[in-house]
Amino acid sequence: MLPNFFVVGAQKSATTSLHHYLEKHPEIYLPKQKETHFFVRDEAYKLGVEYYEDTYFSNWNGQARIGEVDPEYMYFPIALERIKEHIDLSGLKVVFVFRNPVDRAFSHYQMSVKRAIEKVSFEDAISYEDERLKSGSYEKEHFSYVARGEYYDQVLPFLDLLGEENILYLLTEDLRDNRNETLKKIYKFLGVDSSYVSEDVEKNFHKASLSKYVSLTEFIKGNGKYSFKFVRVVLKLIVPSLALRNKIKNILLSLNSKPSDLSLEAETQDKLKSHFKEYNKKLSVLISRDLSCWNK
After folding, report:
1. Mean pLDDT in the chain?
2. E strands present in 83-129
3. Using CA of residue 73, residue 79, residue 81, residue 83, what is the dihedral sign?
4. What is the tens place of the pLDDT at every residue in 196-227?
5. Beta strand 93-98 with 5-9: parallel, antiparallel or unpaired?
6. Do the Cβ atoms of 152 and 286 come closer than 8 Å?
7. For residue 80, what are the CA distances in angstroms to 87, 146, 284?
8. Which of 6, 43, 67, 278 keeps 20 to 30 A from 20, CA to CA?
9. Which of 95, 115, 114 is nearest to 155 (CA)?
10. The whole model's pTM is what?
11. Mean pLDDT throughout 18-39?
């Protein structure tokens, strides 16, 4: 079986928490691995949709709704093009979760710093962004601090393809301030039992943090001078299960985390608010929600 719903983002908008809440519902099936990136990353997509189904959905046990949570599908246009080729659109539902784009951008930056990917200040990062994004998909994935917050342009292709009745728009504030009611809204949208209450509903996941030891993060993530390829190859042989390898990796990264002490400068915040103002205004009309608080 293949997905009949997607939570497509936005990135850093409580989608990790939402994944945990939804996977507990008895009528919803989600892969244990959030964000497979299958429809975005060429190296995964070339393995074929059968690989995608077998790797992530083989444990499906008759649940009415089968889904995936992956914010990359919102930002990269190629994802929707590939989804159209392989997923039955007749019953497809899509959920968006939007966060204040200024807060989202800075949270994204903190994540990149934690992952030992970003080496410059936030101010330099956003000034370099346009040039960086011309370099390729890696840069677009990791350095798209401002671009990902231009939500309106990213929503339109989904709306044109699926129609309003098959799209649910949420705000991060909904999950923060009215979690139970918001989950009920999602359950109703998906057509599953809306009276269900997740056992993890009071938990928050994926708080902003940094790495205690950057070199250790580079080794674990495989993106720095301390990432020894032969160790990763041996680990793959010892632990063939992708899910188990990801679990081990996440445990190690968690142990190497510390609370973030980075702060957003007021001047930078004002600059970004000005940039996003028109995008927010158009999105507000599109989703019929008051977003004026994002501009304050």
Report:
1. 90
2. 93-98
3. negative
4. 998 777 777 665 566 665 566 666 666 554 45
5. parallel
6. yes
7. 10, 21, 23
8. 43
9. 95
10. 0.84
11. 95
Query: In 3-state terms, what secondary structure has residue 4?
Result: coil
Q: Is residue 256 within 8 Å of residue 211, measured between CB atoms? A: yes
Give dist(CA 266, CA 123) in Å, integer: 11
Predicted confidence (pLDDT) at residue 228 exceeds the cutoff of 70: no
Give the model confidence (pLDDT) of 253-287 as tens digits. 677 666 766 889 999 999 999 999 999 999 999 99
Distances (CA, A) of 24 to 30, 215, 295: 9, 35, 35
DSSP E strands in 109-250: the ranges are 167-171, 209-211
CA 162 – CA 273 distance, rounded (Å) = 30
Domains defined along the chain, listed by start? 5-100+149-206+277-295 (3.40.50.300)
Q: Name 199's Cβ contacts closer than 8 Å, sequence gap at least 6.
A: 24
* CA atoms within 13 A of residue 191's CA, in its CB half-sphere: 13
Token pair recorded at residue 279: 């995008």
DSSP character for 89? G
Two tokens, residue 35: 């964000």
Q: State the pairing for strand pair 5-9/65-69.
A: parallel
**Pairing outcome for strands 93-98 and 65-69:** unpaired
- The letter for the amino acid at 75 is Y
3-state secondary structure of 154: helix
Q: What percent of the chain has pLDDT over 90?
A: 75
Strand 167-171 and strand 93-98: pairing?
parallel
In angstroms, the Cα distances linking 99 to 103, 142, 194, 217, 238 are 7, 18, 24, 27, 40
